[in-house]
Amino acid sequence: MKGKNEKSVPVNGSRRRLKYLIPKWQLVTRFLSQQSGIVIGSALAALGYVLFQLPFQIAAGGISGLIIVINNYIPVSVGLLYMLINIPLIIWGYYSLGGLRFIFSTSVSVVSFSVFSDIFVRYLPDMMRRYPVSEDLLLNTIYAGVVFGFGAGLIYRAGGTIGGTSIPARILQKHTGFPLSQSYMVTDMAIILLAGFVFSWEKAMLATLALLLGGMVSDFVLEGVSQVRIAMIITEHPKMMSHTLMNELQRGVSTWSVTGAYTEQSRSMLYCTVRRSQVSDLKYIVSAVDEKAFLVIGNAQQAYGGFGFTHLKPAKKT
Length: 318
Description:
With 318 residues, the protein is an alpha+beta fold. It contains 11 helices and 4 strands; from the N terminus they run αααααααααβαββαβ. It has a 4-stranded antiparallel β-sheet, with helices on one face. The protein folds into 2 domains: 210 residues, no CATH class; 73 residues, Alpha-Beta Plaits.
């Protein structure tokens, strides 16, 4: 039986449950914050594109790279062309991928990137004492990847995409099971190869470098620096090991029984999450308690909760 103040939570659809559990004003605030992040990220990506890619024909994949190739033959507004190419892709994505929120966020990103690109193309040369900033191709390639990737990372972090080849890549992954990262690589490398034929293979190589740097930077912005390590320890002394780890490292430990498939002997496995700076102490403690222990240390991106990590903040009740 339900209490007087207990609410029945819908079971069909996680989004319905989320709307039911979190106050509406918080959802609206989060949505507006996400869209603001998408606009800011699009502006930054457009700045990197106009400042470092366009002047040197560094077509680092995507529709933005394709536009650089097209602009070599047809001098047309960069922002307008980006928007026109993305419109059929967004419609295709709507029918193939669904999700109004995904399509809306992508549309905001595409429109923002298009508008800011045209603004920067028009006003940057007049506003800056020197445009482009540098004539060094390698330097421009590095900053093209860093600045564009940082902007793209802000867009991804806000739950959107920058449009372009990300839509056919997702559709390819959905219908064929092809890994998403490889789908991106196929579509982007096809455009880089085209740029190699049109411009030069040296610029195609630089575009590949910008693409890789952009991916690394966007991942960094999306997930942050990995400061957390997870440790799994198989030992014959679980109580001594867990107590030592908790006392010395001030970290929580979980334990459960396991059986070796080959030896068929029972052991205990301990699971512990530590910060990267504690890995050396962790290895020393494990070896001191049980030199025959089996230790595996892996990377983790983020950790939330007690025992010295950031606490998750629950939604405030209205």
